[in-house]
Design goal:
Elements (H helix, E strand, L loop, with lengths): L1 E2 L5 E8 L5 E4 L2 E7 L2 E6 L8 E6 L9 E5 L5 E7 L10 E6 L1
Antiparallel strand pairs: 1-2, 2-3, 2-9, 4-5, 5-8, 6-9, 7-8
Length: 99
């Protein structure tokens, strides 16, 4: 999808289960690489590296549980999730990438 702003933007958003299953959104594939590490590959490459954010899904988590995006490229981003001790752990999450 493209929207008008100061620039033409592509937006990809989705929700991913802890096991790496896509539960919402379109325009991407997800691969669970290892415990708490997921690669989101975009169906259509961005023109430049997108701005991407992720947050945990659900209310069963402590505010200390975490997620972050790393390694963003025009083709993919990596999302890592962790538990309240800062240890990488499987967690469901939402994400959005815009660029």
């Amino acid at each position: 999808m493209t929207i008008s702003a100061y620039e033409n933007l592509q937006i990809v958003r989705g929700t991913v289960a802890a096991d790496g299953t896509r539960t919402a959104g379109h325009g991407f594939k997800v691969t669970k690489v290892s415990t708490g590490t997921y690669t989101i590959t975009f169906n259509n490459d961005f023109l430049e590296k997108p701005s991407a954010v992720a947050t945990l899904d659900g209310n069963a988590w402590s505010l200390l549980d975490n997620t972050h995006v790393s390694g963003a490229t025009t083709e993919r981003v990596t999302v890592r999730t962790g538990n309240s001790d800062g240890v990488v752990a499987d967690r469901p999450f939402h994400f959005i990438a815009t660029g």
